[in-house]
Amino acid sequence: MDVVVVGSCNTDLSSYVSRLPLRGETLTGTRFETGFGGKGANQCVAAAKLGAKTALVGKLGEDVFGVQYLSNLLSNNINCEHVQSLKTASTGVASIFVGNDGSNCIVIVPGANNLLSVDDVNQAEALISSSKLVVCQNEIPQETTLAALKLAKKCGVKTIFNPAPADKDLDLELFSLPDFFCANETEASLLLNQEVSDVESAKKACHQLIESKGCNTVIITLGEKGVVYQTRINLEVEHIPATPVTAIDTTGAGDSFIGSLAYYMTNMEQLPLSKMIDRAGQIAAISVQKPGTQKSFPLASELPLGLLSS
Ligand code: RIB
Ligand code: NA
């Protein structure tokens, strides 16, 4: 196994509107679509579509959404031995509004995701210990994520943690345990309680996440402003610019980035981190030019050749 994701599955209910609604406002949208989402599954699918051998540890409800979701995972060649369907909970749902400029706002009801437990992680020990990389997000209980990161560490397996959605009360261990701490500007702002909005403030944030929060390698994504990253052993903070594109739907762009990074880390280990980040950014830029989440993530066969060459 290359990549094991311990994380969420949501059915995305996306409404497309000319602009995002204001408080108390009723808007008429232009289009509605259901899609497969949830940050955990999105990242897993992004890596799988590029050709990584992936598995998901997750929970669904035994409802229509859950049944469809499981077949979606299987059709993406994801190992689902540790995906359970529960009678007692609903499949996670995300109500999403997407504005004309590609921006979005999302309300999540976690349902079954909230029942993914430490015990479920322990039952996946054989899977986790045989993998190259474990990837976690913040859409399942924190204690479960902590257990997954600890188990991976015990087994000598590298880890990426994506603190999304942002939570200002993140357990301190979630900063120091993962090898790669990968956040966007909103998450970094909330976690540090200061504005992170451009390359300069992101560089400062990288430094602080390492020095005062105990992170190892920090990667901060800034959308069209690119990515800034710093490793614990290198004082230099690097900025990797993004290729400008016209965004149609940015939902899941961060997941496309992390899933692609996971692919490069496990299938093209010899690439320098700067190249992996640059390429993952280019793949995320492809995804924002198509509507939807997982279905906008490119297959390996759809990528420009340069992104797959060593
Ligand atoms: O990151 C995008 C995802 O966030 C959506 O797919 C939605 O399900 C929410 O989890
Ligand atoms: Na998209």
In short:
The chain is of the alpha/beta class.
**Order of secondary-structure elements:** EEEHEHEEEHHEHEHEHHEEEHH
Number of strands: 13
Largest sheet, in brief, is:
9 strands, mixed
The hetero compounds bound to this protein are: alpha-D-ribofuranose, sodium ion
**Distance between the amino and carboxyl termini:** 21 Å
Helix content: 25-40%
- Tell me the structural class: alpha/beta
| Rg (C-alpha, Å) | 18 Å
Which residues sit in consecutive blocks of at least 5 with pLDDT less than 50? none
Strand order of the largest sheet: 5-4-1-8-9-10-11-12-13
User: What global shape is seen?
Assistant: globular
**Average pLDDT metric:** 96
Tell me about this structure.
- The chain has 310 residues and is of the alpha/beta class.
- The chain is 33% helix and 23% strand.
- The chain has ten helices and 13 strands.
- The protein has helices at residues 39-50, 64-75, 118-123, 125-129, 142-154, 173-176, 185-192, 199-211, 253-267, 273-287, and strands spanning 3-6, 10-16, 31-37, 54-61, 79-86, 92-98, 104-109, 133-136, 158-161, 180-184, 217-221, 227-230, 238-240.
- The chain has a nine-stranded mixed β-sheet with strand order 5-4-1-8-9-10-11-12-13, with helices on both faces. Strands 3-2-6-7 form a four-stranded mixed β-sheet.
- The chain is globular.
- The two termini are 21 Å apart.
- The mean pLDDT is 96.
- It binds alpha-D-ribofuranose and sodium ion (NA).
